[in-house]
Design brief:
Number of domains: 1
Low-confidence stretches: none
Largest sheet: 9 strands, mixed
Distance between the termini: 88 Å
Bound molecules: fructose -6-phosphate, magnesium ion
Helix content: 25-40%
Structural class: alpha+beta
């Protein structure tokens, strides 16, 4: 095997769906695939999958991160899919392609990006995640658990190279100036300060995790807020992630463990509610149809072999996860119907992506009156 410094990229966009924000049609996916097949010379391999209404393009190449040609290829593929989505009259056709023309890098143009560059190991097992109807920080808790919590990741206690810990890179999602505002924290020393940041998944999102033993990247997460890109609600920032597993990284089972009792994340209806992550397998029928949720998480396991992806395994196909799905369905239905829009049922008003609630508050502004103020002022005199 030739040793290559290799980059794995996942670039995703919602370019239109059948019957609402559910799932793109096979024809849309075929148009995306055809572009990659016809114009994908820059790639060693690619694989297209969906998570709810999102199209996720997984790519293997040697061009490095933020590469113009790779990003442009994904953009062109999404444009081809959008054309079909428009012909078919699909809902939200081209939704995440915020700009008319490609400008060097898809970041800031709408699509989400997770990329990592590494020297391919003799065997290079990876997990790739796609999520739908949720928020950029949705992977915070599962990633923290897998790379920093010995209760979940027994490797932190049982394997010397993993015991050396990991460096987490976290992004401030509310940074609006130029560039990306990031911080690096080492676990275990900084694990509490890291947890303090991750307590606010609407504000801070893990972007990368590195092994402290080798300095090699172990995880990459797409982390952006389209609202801050577009200046208004244009869709959900459904994240994608790549994780290298085994050896000096957590095992696939440690990475997947947190989804056995999945965390509550922001998402489902209008991106405004709190709901449990729902693990889905390959199934084409996994569509967010109960209260536009629950937020979906799909995982694919494969190896990268000389730059080529093996046929993926969808771990959440395993019947074990049926009981998790049953639990989440029951818990989410109960929480949703018990709580409605009140209190913790919904996200903080400042996090609402639709402007309707703020408009109501503005409307009410003139109708408030403060009773007893005159009397209090008189009493003071
Ligand atoms: C949430 C989501 C959906 C939509 C909802 C209304 O991520 O995609 O909950 O927000 O279906 O969609 P519009 O406003 O497009 O009618
Ligand atoms: Mg959509
Ligand atoms: Mg989506």
């Amino acid at each position: 095997m030739g040793i290559h410094v290799r980059t794995i990229s996942v670039i995703k966009a919602d370019i239109g769906s059948n019957a609402g924000h559910w799932r793109p049609t096979d024809e849309v996916l075929a148009a995306v695939e055809k572009t990659l097949a016809d114009e994908g010379d820059v790639l060693d391999d690619y694989y297209v999958f969906t998570a709810g209404d999102d199209v996720d393009i997984l790519m293997s190449h040697t061009e490095g991160e933020d590469d113009d040609d790779v990003h442009e290829l994904a953009w062109t593929a999404f444009e081809a899919g959008t054309e079909v989505a428009k012909e078919q009259g699909l809902y939200g056709a081209g939704q995440d392609l915020l700009k008319d023309a490609f400008a060097g890098n898809v970041k800031g143009l709408g699509p989400g990006v997770a990329e990592m560059t590494f020297e391919e190991r003799e065997a290079e097992p990876i997990l790739v995640f796609g999520a739908d109807k949720t928020e950029p920080g949705a992977f915070n808790q599962p990633m923290y658990s897998a790379f920093a919590d010995p209760k979940v990741s027994s490797g932190l206690l049982l394997k010397d190279t993993i015991h050396e810990g990991f460096t987490f890179e976290v992004m401030d999602l509310e940074h609006t100036g130029d560039g990306e505002k990031k911080i690096q924290l080492d676990v275990p020393e900084d694990s509490w300060r890291l947890a303090a940041l991750l307590m606010a998944p609407h504000r801070f999102g893990i972007t990368k995790i590195y092994s402290r033993h080798s300095g090699e990247p172990g995880a990459a997460v797409s982390t952006q807020k389209l609202r801050n890109v577009a200046g208004e609600y244009v869709g959900k920032d459904d994240p994608v992630a790549i994780v290298r597993t085994q050896g000096d990284f957590p095992s696939p089972g440690e990475v997947l463990h947190p989804y056995g009792n999945p965390p509550m994340v922001a998402g489902s209806m209008r991106g405004s509610h709190n709901s449990y992550f729902y693990p889905v397998g390959r199934g084409e029928t996994e569509i967010p149809t109960y209260f536009d949720g629950p937020p979906l998480v799909k995982a694919l396991g494969m190896v990268v072999n000389d730059g080529e992806f093996s046929e993926p395994i969808y771990p959440f196909d395993f019947s074990f996860w049926d009981s998790v799905r049953d639990d989440v369905s029951r818990d989410f239905r109960e929480f949703r119907e018990r709580q409605g829009v009140f209190g913790p049922g919904t996200v903080d008003p400042g996090e609402l992506e639709y402007g309707g609630w703020a408009d109501i508050m503005d409307d009410l502004e003139s109708e408030w009156s403060v009773e007893g103020a005159e009397q209090a002022a008189a009493d003071d005199d």
